Amino acid sequence: MDISNKDRARELPVQQIDVFTDTRDILAHANRAAKKRGFEDWLICDVDAHHTETISWHELVQYIEDPVIRHQAMLFHDEKMGTASYGLNGDMGLKYQDVGGRIPHQAGIREKVDDGVHRDVTLSRRAMSALGVDYMVLFPTPMLTLGLHPQPEMEVYLGRAYNRWLIDKVLSKDDRLKTLAYLPFNVPKEAERTIEEFSGQPGVIGFCVPSVRHKAVHHNDYMRIYAMLEERNLPIAFHAAYHWQDQSLATINRFLGMHALGFVWCNMVHMTNWILNGIPERFPKLKSIWVESGLAWIPFLMQRLDDQYLMRPSEAPQLKKLPSEYMRENCWYTTQPMETVNMKALQLTLEMINAESQLLFASDWPHFDFDLPQEIYDLPFLSEQAKRNILGLNAAKLFNLDPTPRKTL
Amino acid sequence: MAEYLVCSEDEIADGGRKVVACGEREIGIFRVKGALHAWHNMCPHRQGPICQGRIYPQVIEPVDERQEVRTLQYNEENMHVACPWHGWEFNLETGRNAGPAKYRLHRAELAIREGQIYVVL
């Protein structure tokens, strides 16, 4: 029997996706979905994506300001064997996000990059193009636990080096890449210095407090920081993470459980303090963004705090309205990882947080629980305007970005 | 109905696969315990490329007569493919999710003639 070419199946070039597979091949279905939905004409801002800064740590440590620490760090990377990155704390080998190799892009992105720019520029561009994203806000990864470092000054050294390195090597090479610069929150004076130094630098659209830390966000030491950000109209983000050494998670033996709770708990604690101590009353124009805790925790906390507050208003005397009202008017939230198994619950959540103005799309690419823009587009209960707002227009307003789409699909 | 020639039967060994495009659609053909199974390359979770994922035996945790557990084990009787996007796992023979049975892969029809494998869509 004669078989014409059109009747022959074409073997896909990638039979099994692994850590060497090109981002564009991994996300080929996402790109097709973006084209199918006409995202060419939609502004899409990805407010939380990541790179693995430790791959470039030997390069990054050269940006440490302190000459003695810089020298130590460079020698450490030139000479020491079998260690983690200089100065970083964290959970060392407890990084099971890739589910034993099942999700290779989480384990490593080892594809070929030879575009003449830093690998993180190339990899981010490939992801933006595949996902249909116009602007991508980059955050570090292992540095997100620096808030628990036993040496508070190390957060200052490494946080500043990271900001300088990121601007120099990545953000200044592509104005579609942005960041919320690292704030060394454990040393308030240095955090203030960071705001002075990095406000207005290429790609810096706000500042980020990695949430895993045991510092009270309502302490008087931080009021100057909030005032400085409010004056500059720059948002403050609380980026969640997990840390398995946290005693409240000590009995959990499965990464699944620890990750599910850890990524939410840190922001629930900070949000509780933020609201009950009246930070939105003291800084009504300060915009706070709550990043990477998903969304399901917000209705729970709103209800819990409202009920308790009405019984004990004398303990939160600065509040003039319900905690939930501050949470839906003064706070912004990123979508990922958006809980979608119960659509009814998700719909109610989006109503409760006033998603039409307060919700910001985030992919969290390349992490194992990343989301795609199509998940917002496909929600059956949102208007087109609400979808456009969540996918990009809310972020454009919040960060003062040009709302004209810039991508080519 | 359209038929697409994939390859000869012996090109897919036991434990092997071939993921192909048939026009606009992508199909993964797997051989498990000697039999061929074909699935649309579209994870029911987020439409990820499920058929291009890694293959693992099902993970089980045996419980002894005292209701105690000691080790995790692989059950080679049930082979799973894991979606490389988010890790959703499905049985390669039944298409059923490793957890709730309501999540399933979409099976594609195969025809075998004169030692050649065809996808029928």
TrEMBL record, chain B:
InterPro entries in the cross-refs: Rieske_2Fe-2S, Rieske_2Fe-2S_sf
Highest taxon, organism lineage: Bacteria
Swiss-Prot/TrEMBL keywords: 2Fe-2S, Iron, Iron-sulfur, Metal-binding, Plasmid
Pfam assignment, any one: Rieske
Molecular-function GO term, any one: 2 iron, 2 sulfur cluster binding
Coiled coil location: none
Record domain Rieske: where: 3-119
Full protein name: Rieske (2Fe-2S) iron-sulfur domain protein
Species this protein is from: Neorhizobium galegae bv. orientalis str. HAMBI 540
